[in-house]
Write a structure and sequence with these properties.
Layout lengths: L1 H25 L10 H17 L3 H17 L4 H20 L12 E4 L5 E3 H27 L2 H10 L4 H30 L7 H32 L16 H20 L7
Antiparallel strand pairs: 1-2
Helix pairs in contact: 1-7, 2-5, 3-5, 4-5, 6-7, 7-8
Length: 276
């Protein structure tokens, strides 16, 4: 029981540390941080679309290198960046793609024989590799955006692009609610740990877990109303205000021209086929 409580508290603390680290990275003087949040949001969306248009190994390799360079220039911690993106794009996506490797799903030239009639095809392996790289690149751009841009700036940029207030309000309240909910859960488990002496019996452990789930569920309803009322009392009307006003600068124009020129070169080099 002690290990369960300790792991839960440490897990919640780790989540808060990630939130604080994200704000610290957003305040750094990196490439993405120097751009207007509207330009960041729009460019990341376009980069994801462009990355998913390609169906060539060479094209995806270039996009992969491009995302890594962008992460370095934006001062993103590379260790956690690669670990987290790889965990999703390689492990989980790879598991889903396992059936497509074999000849029973995708017929083609043999690459690795499993049995006499079952083997991994070259086409299946290539398609799976491209799909994993596409997933890695797309997640990389999203990760870079979320770390280099504060949440309030993302919401304000979304409102600039005419996202309905109800959607932006839902996203904003959800984040605030999750943060407060984690704080309540952390305090509950810390209170339990500070009052625990010796080993607990199995029955009391199960009773505590069940009661904790019930208490959190009851508090969640009241907490949601408290969060919204607190926002209303502080002047919230669906619009977002930041200390720095959005303004297109010279660096934004250079960024736009560079990316347009770069992908136009890629497009023209392959006769307008975008390396497909």
């Amino acid at each position: 029981m002690s290990n369960f409580i300790e792991k839960t508290v440490l897990g919640i603390q780790s989540t808060f540390e990630d939130m604080f680290a994200s704000d610290e990275i957003a305040n750094k003087k990196g490439l993405m941080q120097s751009l207007d949040p509207r330009v960041r949001l729009l460019s990341i969306i376009l980069l994801i679309v462009i990355a998913n248009l390609g169906n060539s190994l060479y094209y995806m390799a270039i996009m992969l290198v491009y995302s890594l360079i962008l992460a370095v220039l934006s001062k993103i911690p590379m260790k956690s960046y690669i670990a987290r993106i790889s965990a999703v794009s390689i492990v989980f996506t790879g598991i889903v793609l396992i059936p497509s490797l074999f000849n029973v799903v995708r017929p083609g030239k043999p690459l690795i024989y499993i049995t006499g009639s079952l083997y991994i095809t070259k086409g299946g392996a290539l398609s799976a590799l491209i799909f994993i790289m596409r997933s890695f690149v797309s997640l990389s751009f999203i990760y870079i955006l979320t770390l280099s841009t504060k949440w309030i700036e993302i919401l304000k940029a979304l409102r600039y692009f005419k996202l309905p207030k109800v959607f932006s309000a839902t996203l904003d309240i959800s984040l605030r609610y999750i943060t407060l909910f984690l704080d309540v859960a952390s305090n509950m488990f810390l209170a339990r740990k500070s009052r625990s002496v010796g080993k607990s019996k199995g029955k009391s452990e199960r009773k505590f877990v069940a009661s904790s789930m019930g208490n959190l569920l009851i508090k969640s309803e009241q907490l949601s109303d408290d969060v919204y009322n607190a926002m209303i009392s502080r002047g919230y009307k669906g619009e977002y205000k930041t200390i720095n006003n959005f303004k297109i600068s010279r660096s934004d124009i250079i960024w736009i021209i560079f990316n347009v020129s770069l992908f136009m070169i890629f497009f023209l080099l392959k006769g307008g086929k975008l390396w497909i």
